[in-house]
Amino acid sequence: MTDTDEILMIAVRGGDVAKLGVLFDRYHRALFDFFVRMTNSRAAADDLVQDVFFRMLKYRQTFRDDSRFKAWMFHIARNARADYYKTHQPETSFPEEAAGNIQSRSPFPGHELEQKQQVMLLQCAMFRLPEEKREVLVLSRYQEMKYDQIAELLGCEVGAVKVRVHRALKELREIFVKLSSERLPCNVNKSETTLRIM
């Protein structure tokens, strides 16, 4: 039987730091995905993933027996990202690489190109959301966190999380429709944002 995240973290807290490697294997991709979607930078995401696991080791004594690991980990991740931007400039603009420059190897290139452009428009719309709205969507839709876990992470009620997600989705839809109707290329660095869009 596989140990739960909580059992593993309690073992790490007790001095069995090798168990952190198991947690790393389970969560480093999810953290990388979170950071890329929040920063639009693979380099920053790499740095931040390493920082989170360093902090998990450093602050392991703060993990309580009744803590839920994923919420605790993302609490550390949010703090790491906030600290990172105290010394690094956030990427506020997209590099000049237009969606229209995508080359297709598909036997139906028009369809594949259209799909890729839709993905890039969605990415662009995500980065036009205020950070707190983007974060709640990334946590709920891409990290598949339950509303009660997000509520614990953000220190609010589950009902408040539902309202935030609803408002963020509404605003994302409005931005996406506006970008689509403008029919302008959305400049997004493909090398920075190659992760799955749902």
Give a written overview of the molecule.
With 198 residues, the chain is mainly α. It has helices at 5-13, 19-39, 42-58, 69-87, 109-128, 131-142, 147-154, 158-182. The protein has 8 helices and no strands. Helix 3 (42-58) crosses helix 4 and helix 5 (109-128) crosses helix 8. It has 2 domains: 5-87, Orthogonal Bundle (Rna Polymerase Sigma Factor, Chain: A); 106-182, Arc Repressor Mutant, subunit A (Orthogonal Bundle). The model is unreliable at 92-107 and 189-198 (pLDDT under 50).
List keywords for this structure.
8 helices, Arc Repressor Mutant, subunit A, 0% strand, mainly alpha, disordered C terminus, 198 residues, Rna Polymerase Sigma Factor, Chain: A
Helix content: 55-70%
Rg over C-alpha atoms, rounded to the nearest angstrom: 19 Å
CATH-defined architecture of the largest domain: Orthogonal Bundle
Strand runs, count: 0
Q: Provide the residue-averaged pLDDT.
A: 83
Strand content: under 5%
Derived structural class: mainly alpha
Number of domains: 2
The topology string of helices and strands comes to HHHHHHHH
Largest sheet: none
List segments where confidence is low: pLDDT < 50 over at least 5 consecutive residues. Answer: 92-107, 189-198
Shape: globular
User: What top-tier CATH class of the largest domain fits best?
Assistant: Mainly Alpha
